[in-house]
Amino acid sequence: MDLYLPIAEMSVNALVIILLGGGVGFLSGMFGVGGGFLTTPLLIFYGIPPAVAVASSATQITGASVSGALAYWRRGQVDLKMGLVLVAGGLVGAGIGQIGFRQLQKLGQIDVVINIAYVVLLGSIGSLMLRQALAELRRIRAGGSVGSGGRRHHPWVAALPGRMRFYKSGLYISPLAPLLLGAAVGMLTVVLGIGGGFIMVPAMLYVLGMAATAVVGTSLFQIIFVTAATTLLHATSSKSVDIVLALLLLAGGVAGAQLGVRAAQRLRPEKLRLALALLVLAVAIRLFVGLTWTPASLYSLDVL
Amino acid sequence: MKRRWLLPLLLAPLLGGAAPTMLISDLSQARIEIDTTFKGADLLVYGAIQYPAGARPDSAPDIAVVVRGPAQPVTVRRKARLAGIWINAEEQRFESVPGFYAVATTRPIADLADDRTTAIYEIGVDNLQLSPAGGDADRSFEAGLIAEKRRAGLFQEASGGVTITRGVLYRARIALPSAVPVGSYVAEIHMIRAGRVIASSQVPISIDKSGFERWIYVAAQENSLAYGLAAVAAALLAGLTASLLNRRD
Questions:
Q1: How many Cβ atoms from other residues are within 10 Å of residue A84's Cβ?
Q2: Cross-chain Cβ contact B77/A251 below 8 Å
Q3: Which string of b and e fits A264-290 if b means at least 16 CB within 10 Å?
Q4: For an interface test with B, which of A67, A72, A109, A297 has the most B Cβ atoms less than 10 Å from its Cβ?
Q5: Closest by alpha carbon to B231, among A39, A253, A221, A62?
Q6: Angle CA(B65)–CA(B206)–CA(B175) in degrees, nearest 5?
Q7: Residue ranges of chain A with pLDDT lower than 70?
Q8: Diameter of chain A by CA atoms?
Q9: What confidence tens digit (pLDDT) does each residue in A153-207 have?
């Protein structure tokens, strides 16, 4: 089923895009990650112009996260207060990221920067998560209980001034910590076209020391608002949001997300984290190989 | 663009003698509309050769059909290995690169006319005057640009792509890919005999988005904030709908 995309200015197979959205949506619901780190590279690989892929995948993440976030909300697994602090930081970060994005585009280095950023981020976070997940599995096998005594926030977080109580997260910490985290992720949302869940979730767990039950829901809550702001930024500056592409991705994505949430309820959280770590590492390795292998063509065109 | 046209048009009568040979040309579609189901189009360029006093020579002439799209400035970047990683190292800007360029000829371009003639009429992708800014010394960027455009189907060369029937009727089929840029196009038809262009004609083509595609595109360009808000609203609505439909547990 061929469909012409009005902003990407090309014809695509609608079925392929829907299935792509569905697969990514499943992961979104299961892990609480937006899945943008998969959608964007896959769309570029399919032939969608990178700027359109980045912008439209942000739009799709908004919709894909809504169904997931609502599912967690109904189970009372969203810390609203924590979420709002993260969103506030995220909006600031998105604004800063937009300025950086424009500069890199002018220099012609946006593609390389995006790829290196993906490799560094996914590689370091993936290995950190893998180490944690393996240690946890070993502890369980040795007869210990899940996460007992392992959960506490990073010493840096404790050093920040001012404290606030986040009941659902089980935290009494400075709001500056989640604010800064939100800003960092917001910046990445604009530049990389990702929700940032794969950074947010481990950072919430291992840096802030949040209760595992509230992590995924709160991460999805933050993603909705920051990706919505990103869509607006891209729509008004680069005009590269393809609403048809985003809705195609969503058609598959919303269905996939629901299935993902259900699958996640049945799986043990430590196994879930191990699976996510492996997935993140796999993408990092694939992108790293892409950076180092001699490309099929040394030349790239940029129509002004 | 306009000036390039003046020269052959002025020369055509001189080269052809007092009663010049004429080319009568037409297109299957003068206006191509890009709608939701657009996946490229086949453009048929056809016409007839009108000889002075109906005197048809024994051997058929050569015809070159060129279809070109609006010129755009393009930056070409070349990757180089830096610490094991391929990054964009050098760049070269070209001021006037046709968004689309296809040439169909009766014979290989090298056999049609000498290099000078094909360069003047810009027949063949290697004869395009792409106006490199500051000069592209070894033409390596130009070669890279042409290779990339060819890969995308936006530059085409088809030797043998023009068929001539009974020495009078000619036709060529040009395939426009789905990623063809919108704008004003022109089909240029040159008749070549003994290495000289003896008649030329041109027909304008317009390629534009229509209906839903146009509506979306115009909204995104002109009311970008409202478009962005609509995109967010549509995404949220799709998510909420799915969530409600699935609220069984």
A1: 17
A2: no
A3: beeeebbebbbebbebbbebbeebbeb
A4: A67
A5: A62
A6: 45
A7: 32-34, 144-153, 304
A8: 62
A9: 677 777 777 777 887 777 777 888 888 889 998 988 888 878 777 788 878 888 8
